[in-house]
Structure formats: structure tokens, C-alpha cells
């Protein structure tokens, strides 16, 4: 027997074992999870355990409440379905989110009733641990009810919503429902920030239009022959020009000219121009996500030596067209050709590429999860340049640490419901901190009503009849019966020896009795 545990990452608890103790031990080792079940992966494990040769002699038993997706592939062999659970009574917080507004953020919460009867429930909303609002909602059976709070404080804050039963006459306590994991939810409000971007250019309508269209940016433009303003900016874009002194913030350099300043070649060394821009190749890199260069043509580009800190993102036969990297505590991306010498600004790839580069060069937040995550869903932490450590604290207090790479840190251990804290530091000094929430917003998990049938492939599998599943061991009964028979024989043998002898056994007596009397 093979046992597969269905979680967000299904695993084989035990494979092809017939030992009862091993099977029971494997079942005892299983632990419940709040993450959404990956049924297709579990089906793949089950099909692999059966194998093609054993399909006709194998039985796959699905033990579940029946909350399976409807597009599952067929399984080999016989399939049986054993439903678990007894109640459909469950109220769930199915949504909790915050949106900025002119008068203050707005909170939206939704409560779903998965039961068969109408319910009343108290929805309490806390802000940073203090009660903000409590309202009673009437939720019809099989439907949902919403709660909206407006004009909330504009400061960053942590919100928690929870469900509780209304006071009941004559009852000191009342159970809300059969599943408590979806009775609470968290949300983090972070006010929107606007990154200040300075474009230093003789004039480029293409890049100016993209910067104006991107959300969360405050673009400014300075003439190419003017000194750099002393006001601080999060990102500097040099288009066709290079100043003698470069800012220490992140840089996007487009169409770099030859550099004469002796201090700059160590950062960027432009050696000439090349026209062999055919056979354009894109690296497999997150900065090129959704970027398609299939229809992009480049007339010519500058020959730029890629420094040790740079990685080539887009290349051609004549040389690199785009490279990026981190050096000296700042991030730099270099596009080696003039936008007017290509049809890139006319392609859909242009705004996508610029958006990806700006989000990497100057991320507005170290993470983005305004609506929270589902259990098991990973999140990318994008620390600012110069960060040396990323720390994540789970709701249970476990601390994870990692050294950030150029693409940030991917954190996936989010199976625990609640609030996670993220800290980014450089040399022991905290650079940034933020929070994100993990909530059970999954209707398949909150719908705990046992289903009568499940669909696998094109077949509907009905629930098995209620009966005892397993093997009943009869050998103790057989051994007891054999022992009793031996005891009777022993008793008859010894007690039969004291009986008076008779000439012959009476008619109708057994051969056993006759043999004993003859021996006497």
C-alpha cells in the first residue's frame, strides 16, 4: 500500500508497504495544512505508484470532503471515494483588503456562509491591536455579506478582522462553526509612495511618455547641458549624455556616449559603435518578464565593455544591447543604443521593459502583497541596493534569514496563517521593514460540506457505502477454537479412563467413545 498526503506540495508518506505498523506510523506522521491542496500533483504521484502494469489489479482510494477541482485527469485502476466530515456549518472571512482614497483608506471585508441555514455574526475590526469597529451582519445560507469602512487613518497600520457569534439568550457560549482557521484575517496598509525620477536628456518623447504613464512615479526632466539639481532623487536616467560626476543612486543609462573622464571608464567603458545587431537573444531573467523582442530591430549600438558587476540581458552578434548589475551600493542598467535608432518604442515590449527596469532599479516597496497571500504562496522581497541581509519572522515566531541576491529573496514558507514581518538591513543597520499577511481565502477549503460525488476525468465517483474498511484478523479466534478442542480431548481422555469397562459400545455412540472404552 502507498499513502500520498495531499497538500500544496504532495508527498508520498510510505511507498509499497504491507506492514501494518509502518502504514499506521506513516498516517500518524501526517499533519494538517492550511495551504491549498495541489490535487493534480497528488494524482501524478498516485498514478506513478500504480504503474501501467498493475493498473488492472490496483485500487486508488480518495479520502476527502470532496472539495476537488473539476478538471482533474483520470486515474488508472479502480477508484473509490470515501467522504469525511459531517457538518457544512461554516462562516468564513473570504476577503479583507484596503484601498487608498482621498479622505483616507477604505476597508472592504466579506463574510461567506457555506452552511445550509442563515446566520448572524459579529465582525470585529482591530487596527494595530485596538478595536476600531464591530458590526453585526446577517449572512444568508450559501451567500455572502460585505462590510465597508471608510475614512480610516492615513498612517501605515495593521488591520485584523475576526468573526464571533452574537450573544445568545440562555447560552453562556456558542460555537461559531466547524472550521476556525477562516474566522480571522489580516491586512497591511502601506500608503502609496511616489519615486522621484530625474531624466537628463536633450529630449526624448518616447521615454518621457513612458515615465508619465507609469504609476507611482514623479518624473522630472533636466536639460543635458545643465548641472544636476541638488534635490534628491530615487533614480537618475541619462539619455545620450553622461556627466563628469555620477550620482550615488541607481542609474539607467540609455545610448551612452564615449566617456573622456578618466574616473568613469572603470564604471562604463564605451569603445565605439557596431551595426551587426542581428540575431537578438534574450537571457532568462526576471527583468525580461513578458518582454518580447521578436519584432524589434536595432540599426546600431555602442560597443560597451561589460564590467564584472554586469550581466548581459539582451545581446546581438555585434555586442550587448542591455546589461545590468549592482556595484558600489547602487544598481545600474545600460541600454547601449539610441531609441531613435530602433523600432523598440513602437513595440509593446518597450513600456514593459522600462517598467521592469525601473521597478528593479528603484523599488517603491521591498515587497508587494496589498491583498495578502494564500497559504503556501511565495513572495519576493526586493531589498534596496547595498542590502546585506533579509529577515522574515513568521506568526509563530520562527525567524528565517537570507543574503539577498540581485533578484531579491524568494520566501515560500508561508503555510502559517497570520502576520509576517520582513526586515532588510545593511551592515547591521535596518534599511527597511514591512509586513505581509497570509489568509485562508479559499472557497474550496472553507466549503467543508462532504460531497456525495467527485469528478475524476470524465467519470463521477460516488461515495462508498459506510462500512468498515480494512482487514479483520481471524487467527486469534481460530487458535482459541483449536485450543478448546484440545482441552476437550484431554479431559475426555483422562476422565474416560475411570469409567467401568463394557463389553461393547452402545449403539449410537461415536467412534471416539468406542475407542476409549475398548482401551479400558
Please provide a written account of the structure.
The protein has five domains: 3-86 and 450-462, no CATH class; 91-192, Sandwich (Immunoglobulin-like); 195-361, Class I glutamine amidotransferase (GATase) domain (Rossmann fold, 3-Layer(aba) Sandwich); 379-438, Sandwich (Immunoglobulin-like); 476-519. Helix content is 15%, strand content 33%. It contains seven helices and 29 strands. The chain has helices at 20-29, 39-50, 205-213, 349-361, 443-446, 475-496, 511-519, and strands spanning 3-5, 11-14, 59-64, 78-83, 91-99, 106-113, 119-127, 130-139, 144-149, 157-164, 184-189, 195-200, 217-222, 235-239, 250-254, 269-274, 281-282, 301-305, 310-315, 320-327, 330-335, 379-381, 389-393, 399-402, 409-411, 418-426, 429-438, 453-456, 459-462. The longest helix has 22 residues, at 475-496. It starts with a strand and ends with a helix. 29% of the residues are buried. Mean pLDDT is 84; it is low at 169-173 and 499-520.
What attributes does this structure have?
single chain, 520 residues, alpha+beta, Immunoglobulin-like, Rossmann fold, 5 domains, eight-stranded mixed beta sheet, four-stranded antiparallel beta sheet, 7 helices, 29 strands, disordered C terminus
Amino acid at each position: 500500500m502507498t499513502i500520498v498526503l495531499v497538500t500544496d506540495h504532495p508527498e508520498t508518506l510510505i511507498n509499497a508497504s504491507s506492514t501494518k505498523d509502518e502504514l499506521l506510523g506513516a498516517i500518524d506522521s501526517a499533519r494538517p495544512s492550511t495551504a491549498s491542496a495541489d490535487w493534480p500533483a497528488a494524482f501524478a504521484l498516485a498514478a506513478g505508484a500504480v504503474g501501467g502494469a498493475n493498473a488492472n489489479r490496483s485500487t486508488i482510494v480518495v479520502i476527502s470532503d470532496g472539495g476537488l477541482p473539476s478538471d482533474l485527469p483520470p486515474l488508472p485502476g479502480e477508484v473509490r471515494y470515501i467522504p469525511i466530515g459531517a457538518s457544512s456549518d461554516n462562516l468564513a472571512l473570504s476577503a479583507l483588503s484596503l484601498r487608498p482614497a482621498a479622505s483616507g483608506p477604505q476597508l472592504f471585508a466579506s463574510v461567506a456562509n457555506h452552511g445550509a441555514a442563515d446566520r448572524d455574526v459579529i465582525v470585529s475590526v482591530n487596527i494595530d491591536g485596538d478595536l476600531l469597529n464591530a458590526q453585526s451582519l446577517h449572512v444568508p445560507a450559501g451567500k455572502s455579506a460585505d462590510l465597508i469602512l471608510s475614512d480610516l487613518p492615513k498612517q501605515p497600520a495593521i488591520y485584523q478582522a475576526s468573526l464571533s457569534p452574537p450573544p445568545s439568550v440562555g447560552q453562556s457560549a456558542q460555537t461559531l462553526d466547524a472550521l476556525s482557521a477562516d474566522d480571522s484575517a489580516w491586512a497591511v496598509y502601506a500608503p502609496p509612495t511616489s519615486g522621484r525620477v530625474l531624466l537628463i536628456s536633450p529630449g526624448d518623447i518616447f521615454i518621457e511618455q513612458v515615465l508619465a504613464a507609469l504609476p507611482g512615479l514623479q518624473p522630472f526632466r533636466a536639460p543635458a547641458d545643465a548641472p544636476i539639481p541638488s534635490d534628491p532623487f530615487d533614480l537618475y536616467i541619462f539619455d545620450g549624455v553622461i556627466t563628469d560626476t555620477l550620482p550615488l543612486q541607481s542609474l539607467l543609462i540609455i545610448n551612452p556616449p564615449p566617456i573622456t573622464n578618466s574616473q568613469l571608464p572603470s564604471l562604463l567603458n564605451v569603445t565605439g559603435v557596431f551595426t551587426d545587431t542581428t540575431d537578438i537573444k534574450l537571457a532568462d531573467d526576471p527583468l525580461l518578464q513578458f518582454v518580447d523582442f521578436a519584432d524589434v530591430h536595432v540599426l546600431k549600438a555602442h560597443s560597451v565593455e561589460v564590467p564584472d558587476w554586469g550581466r548581459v540581458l539582451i545581446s546581438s552578434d555585434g555586442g550587448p544591447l542591455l546589461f545590468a548589475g549592482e556595484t558600489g551600493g547602487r544598481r545600474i542598467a545600460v541600454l547601449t543604443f539610441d531609441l531613435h535608432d530602433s523600432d523598440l518604442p513602437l513595440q509593446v515590449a518597450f513600456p514593459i521593459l522600462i517598467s521592469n527596469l525601473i521597478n528593479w532599479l528603484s523599488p517603491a516597496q521591498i515587497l508587494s502583497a496589498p491583498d495578502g497571500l494564500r497559504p503556501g504562496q511565495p513572495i519576493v522581497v526586493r531589498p534596496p541596493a547595498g542590502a546585506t541581509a533579509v529577515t522574515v519572522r513568521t506568526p509563530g515566531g520562527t525567524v528565517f534569514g537570507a543574503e539577498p541576491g540581485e533578484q531579491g529573496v524568494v520566501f515560500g514558507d508561508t503555510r502559517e496563517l497570520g502576520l509576517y514581518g520582513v526586515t532588510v538591513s545593511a551592515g547591521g543597520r535596518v534599511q527597511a521593514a514591512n509586513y505581509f499577511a497570509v489568509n485562508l481565502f479559499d472557497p474550496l477549503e472553507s466549503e467543508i460540506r462532504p460531497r456525495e460525488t467527485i469528478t475524476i476525468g470524465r467519470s463521477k465517483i460516488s461515495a462508498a457505502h459506510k462500512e468498515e474498511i480494512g482487514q479483520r484478523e481471524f487467527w486469534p479466534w481460530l487458535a482459541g477454537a483449536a485450543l478448546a478442542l484440545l482441552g476437550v480431548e484431554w479431559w475426555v481422555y483422562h476422565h474416560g479412563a475411570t469409567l467401568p469397562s463394557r463389553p461393547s459400545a452402545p449403539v449410537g455412540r461415536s467412534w471416539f467413545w468406542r475407542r476409549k472404552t475398548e482401551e479400558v
